[in-house]
Each structure stands twice: as C-alpha cells, then as structure tokens.
Design a protein that fits this description.
The chain has six helices and two strands, in the order αβαααβαα. The protein has about 130 residues and is mainly α.
C-alpha cells in the first residue's frame, strides 16, 4: 500500500481538483489565524509581544504547510481506494534503490583516518 501511495501520482484533471481543495484549506487556515483571531491586527497595531512574532508567526506559517500536506495526502489515499483510475503508477525506480554499493563508494567508506589505523606505533616499526 505504501509503495502504491509513494510511487504513483494523481492524473491531471483530478490533480487540479485535489490541489485546489488543499490550497483552499490553507487559505482558510491563514484567514482563521490572521483575520479571525486578529493576529494581523495585533501585529500592525504594535500590540504583539516579541514572543508572538518569534514563535507564533512561524508556527502559523508552518502549520499551513502541514495542513496542505495532510489534505493532499488524505485525498490521494481516498482516490487510491475509491477511484483507482485517477492514479497513475510512476516508472519503477528499482535501479536507484539497489542494495549494492558502487565500488568507488565502498572503497571510500572503508578508508580509515590515519589516527585510527594504529599508525601511532610507527616509531616502534622503524626500530
């Protein structure tokens, strides 16, 4: 199920609808936070505390991104379950997810820094 969710995309006419619904949720959240809760008026009138600006504004803006993702993913799951014809599978990217490490990276990974190789006893080797 996760593979289907991750390796698929919504087809164009449905994607526009899902995008608009997700963005309308974000617009409603920003309207609620800035207008209905008078955050914007508080900031512009100079009554906002430093904590409101330092913590409140980033939380409001980050939560807008969270709301967008939440609505988009829920609608994508609903489309997968209820209308699978609206979903298109992406090409398999199995070659990108190989368990084998390329040889050049494997050699670079196996190199140890000089201090951990045990080279501290070089004076003993010279004697």
């Amino acid at each position: 199920m996760f593979c289907l969710f991750r390796n698929s995309r919504i087809l164009s006419p449905w994607h526009i609808g899902v995008l608009l619904v997700s963005l309308s949720g974000v617009v409603y959240w920003l309207h609620f936070a800035f207008i209905q809760k008078a955050f914007w008026q508080t900031v512009l009138s100079g009554q906002a505390l430093f904590v409101d600006l330092l913590l409140g504004l980033p939380v409001v803006l980050i939560f807008a991104v969270v709301i967008y993702a939440m609505i988009y993913w829920v609608l994508k799951l609903l489309l997968i379950f209820l209308w699978p014809q609206a979903i298109e599978m992406l090409p398999d990217s199995a070659e990108q997810l190989s368990d084998d490490m390329p040889e050049s990276l494997h050699q670079a990974w196996q190199k140890e820094p000089p201090s951990s190789r045990g080279d501290s006893n070089e004076s003993d080797k010279k004697d």
